[in-house]
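Write out this protein's structure.
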Amino acid sequence: MTDYQTARVSLGARLREVRVEAGLSGRALAQELGWHPSKVSKLELGRQSSTVADLTSWARACGSPQLTAELIAQRRAMETHYASWRRRLAAGTRARQTASAALEGRTRSLRVFESMCVPGLLQTAEYAWHVMRPGSVLHSAPDDLGSGVRARMERQRILDEPGRSFDLVLWEPALWMRPCPSAVMAGQLDHLAVLIRRGRGNIGVVPRGTRLAALPVHGFWIFDDDRVHVETIGAELRLTDSDAIAPYRTVFTDLSKAAVRGPEALRIVARVRHELFGEPST
């Protein structure tokens, strides 16, 4: 269970306490609010997210309007762990990239694992455009993809800043995914090879067929030791509780140890490029 899910269950339990203390059954409360009884049940069990209006009405119907601020504050704290992409992209892709840059600027140790694509800090502009565009369209973001891509490229400067440590790990299947035209993908693989040769980002590749202690079902970013970001199709999860972060640290350690680097990583990139496009990397 993610931090967000745990927090939603906790808020639901508090709502139930307020209702019980008011001496109301779930059905009676639903009738008072003009809701279907299942909505009361779902909110109390943490199976549905509440709105500010829901919490305001709940407190008032239970005769405890003074609890409204408490309930809304608990909901607001819960949402610091979860942000839908529609909301994250409401101001455009550039604003999203700028926020990421600000977080990375405060981070001294960055560990990244990606299983489906090349990480943003290692992308070419052309590849980034094709990776970012589907999400922008899916979530109806403002049409500022060009400036969003430029902002992502600007973020890459952090790889050359002193006093920071990086461990950027890719699962080999990420190199085989083709979210873009062949020429763009070939250019991305060439760029990755250049970065590996230069030693930027401490790049590692986990070869296909490697036996892993945990299946890497999704990518994740670890900022220092106190924050983890996980991107899903619908939202970005921001985990800050130590109990939630600990498994990611453990899994990342295993993945990093399984990764090959330097000449071995270059051989994988060259092999993928050759098998995809029939020619060696530059």
